[in-house]
Specification:
This protein has six helices and four strands. With about 150 residues, the chain is α/β, with parallel strands linked by helices.
Length: about 150
């Protein structure tokens, strides 16, 4: 989640958007990619929604929970929560995820004070297992979960 990575991903999204003719972007990120999605969205004005799956969206809390060394040269998504608070968001958390527990998503919610944000616990999912089955059902719920009033 270094600035260099975020700049590179942001440029790739701009190229894809230009080539496709898309007007808005929906970002989806799994694990660390959830944090990347937040960091990219904080730089853009064309993001229509953010969805994270087992997303590490508070790296400092994650480091503290696991008593590990902080990520080197990484930006912290939780410090950008206020910049994406206007974007509809759904953060999916595995009910059995010990790596990225629900406290990570809740802490992000508390920092963002967003109007259009939901945290959804997904049963029978750990950090790495169960998502392949759950994801097709979650995608079908897209319209009803992302447009939050």
């Amino acid at each position: 989640m270094s600035d260099e990575v975020i700049v590179s991903m942001d440029e790739a999204i701009s190229i894809a958007k230009r080539q496709s003719g898309a007007k808005n972007i929906h970002l989806v990120g799994y694990s660390g990619g959830g944090g990347v999605a937040i960091l990219i969205a904080a730089r853009r004005d064309d993001i229509a929604s953010i969805r994270t799956i087992a997303g590490n969206i508070n790296t400092q809390l994650w480091v503290d929970l696991h008593d590990i060394t902080p990520l080197y040269d990484s930006l912290s998504p939780e410090n950008y929560a206020h910049k994406v608070r206007h974007i509809p968001q759904v953060h999916y958390v595995g009910a059995e995820d010990e790596n990225i527990p629900i406290s990570i998503a809740r802490s992000f919610v508390n920092r963002s004070k967003a109007d259009f944000l939901r945290v959804i616990t997904v049963p029978e999912c750990s950090h790495t297992k169960g998502w392949e089955t759950a994801w097709s059902k979650l995608l079908q719920q897209y319209d009803s979960t992302i447009v939050i009033n």
